[in-house]
Amino acid sequence: MTPEPIDLLLSNANRVISGKSGVHEGVSIAIDSGKIKAMGPASEIAGFFHPAEVVDATGKLVTPGFVDSHTHIVFGGHRASEFVQRCAGADYEEIAASGGGIRSSVRMTREASLEDLIDAARPRLARMVAAGSTTIEIKSGYGLDLETELKMLRAIAELAKDCPAEVVATFMGAHETPDEWRHDRAGYLDLVCQQMIPAVAKEGLAEFCDVFCERQVFDPEESRRVLETGLKHGLKAKIHADEMAASGGSEVAAEVGAISADHLMMTPPEGIEALKRSGVVATLLPGTTFYLSKPQYAPAREMIDAGLTVALATDRNPGSCTVESMLFIVGLAVQRMRMTPLEAIQAATFGGAKALGREESCGSLEVGKRADLILWEVPDEDALVYEFTNDLKRSVWAGGRLIADTEVHS
Question: Cβ distance 316 to 329 under 8 Å?
């Protein structure tokens, strides 16, 4: 039999974490036309294909590319002073109540031009891709008026054009009540539901609609209204839920059929049960808990044991988390949330794909799926997590194309 020509062969990996179906040893991966053509024992795969390029993966670990399903990387200015305030003892909610927090970023984002937003976000996005993220969600939510929300979403669309990773856009006009509507939250919600959501949907600028269901922000009834309006206009539902307190957000996620509920640091048992019953993905953001020095991480162990699909994401944003490395998030999940290394890697790959409705195209290494993967210069997942604070040598492919390389191979 004549060997079939293919673009790339990753040969004889020590371990391959599929992201979905466990771990395989001594495996080679054949890649052609941007997709995984075959996977199997190295001795069997070798005779079937004639690759244009061979990468020796002996002694190394292969994982899917990370799917970062929750970020806020498009914004104006920075909030470094707030970080210093928190380190000196100020609380995040105190800072927000005094005009800082999200509203501070809103003021700076409104002042920024479209080009300013793109230029500021592009290096953040590049660093995340280089760290292994091959699918990245980006939210609006620092505009809080029609013009600036559309400007943010257009910036995301421009970033997506030349980014080697897949970029997914989420509209989040209900991120906070802006200064000019501070005493008329109902009026602002009318603006979100009657003007912003229809305009975003008409231009096709977002796939998802998100809302911050939290005390002092939007309550369950208000959050439900925003998400149901989004659904009527073809925007799938996501929700920031139970971050600072048990806000009822997890129950809202279940009621509206959200694809994911995110944060969940303070989710009570009944919230976990509601998420399980409705099949909502629990997206956990331990980088935010770490960055805010909060004592309580999301109850990942209880969620996994209850049968929920758990995702991990960075929540990279200007005020409550500047972490851009998904590997660091994986390490935090193991260290602080009692997840096993395999569980954490699966949550950062296949779990994230499910949180974006992309589990059929990415998030796991399977024949026919997009060839998004990382070759790590460590032998296994335990060694990978052990080194989570370090910038490990790696090669990253997206759609079968090498997009980042720190000389893992010669």
Answer: no
Given a contact cutoff of 8 angstroms between Cβ atoms, the answer to whether 211 and 255 are in contact is no
Name the phi and psi angles at 150, rounded to 5: -65, -40
pLDDT at 410 over 50: no
How far apart are the C-alpha atoms of 126 and 225, rounded to whole Å? Answer: 36
Quick check: 262 and 241 in contact, CB under 8 A? yes
Domains of the chain: 4-64+365-405 (2.30.40.10), 66-355 (3.20.20.140)
Helix (H, G, I), strand (E, B) or coil at 156: helix
Query: Which of 78-87, 100-109, 320-329 shows the highest mean pLDDT?
Result: 320-329
CB 363 within 8 A of CB 349: yes
Query: What kind and span of H or E run contains 327?
Result: helix 326-337
Residues ≥6 apart with Cβ < 8 Å to 397: 8, 31, 65, 134, 371, 372, 373, 374, 403
pLDDT at 99: 73
CA gap 324, 291 in Å, rounded = 12
Helix (H, G, I), strand (E, B) or coil at 200: helix
Q: Where are the beta strands (DSSP E) in 245-288?
A: 260-263, 281-284
71 within 8 A of 138, measured Cβ to Cβ: yes
- pTM (predicted TM-score): 0.96
Supply the mean pLDDT for the chain.
95
For residue 95, name the pLDDT band (cuts at 50, 70, 90). Answer: confident
- Residue carrying structure tokens 């949907």: 201
Average pLDDT estimate for 220-227: 98
Residues 69 and 356 sit within 8 Å (Cβ to Cβ): yes
Tokens of 193: 């539901």
Please write the tens of the pLDDT for every residue from 135-167. Answer: 999 999 999 999 999 999 999 999 999 999 999
Q: What is the Cα gyration radius of the chain? A: 21
**Which residues share a beta bridge with 50?**
5
| Averaged pLDDT, 189-197 | 98
